Amino acid sequence: DSMTEFLSFLGEHAVALQEKTLKHILLTLFSLVFASSLAIPLGLWITTSPLLRTLILRIGSVTQTIPSLAM
Fold this sequence. Notes:
The protein is mostly helical. Helices cover 92% and strands 0% of the residues.
């Protein structure tokens, strides 16, 4: 039965799965904190200048478009 095999696999690899899950959560949390620490102050800063706002929004648009072009 495939469910029995799956549960057996989970039991045999529980420690490795926990370690990899924790590593994934920490990497995700670090990325979120890093991105937020840049984006929030930058977002507040660009509200003070129309030129900055235009420049930053254009750069952001390009960086979002480039990966889409690869698909």
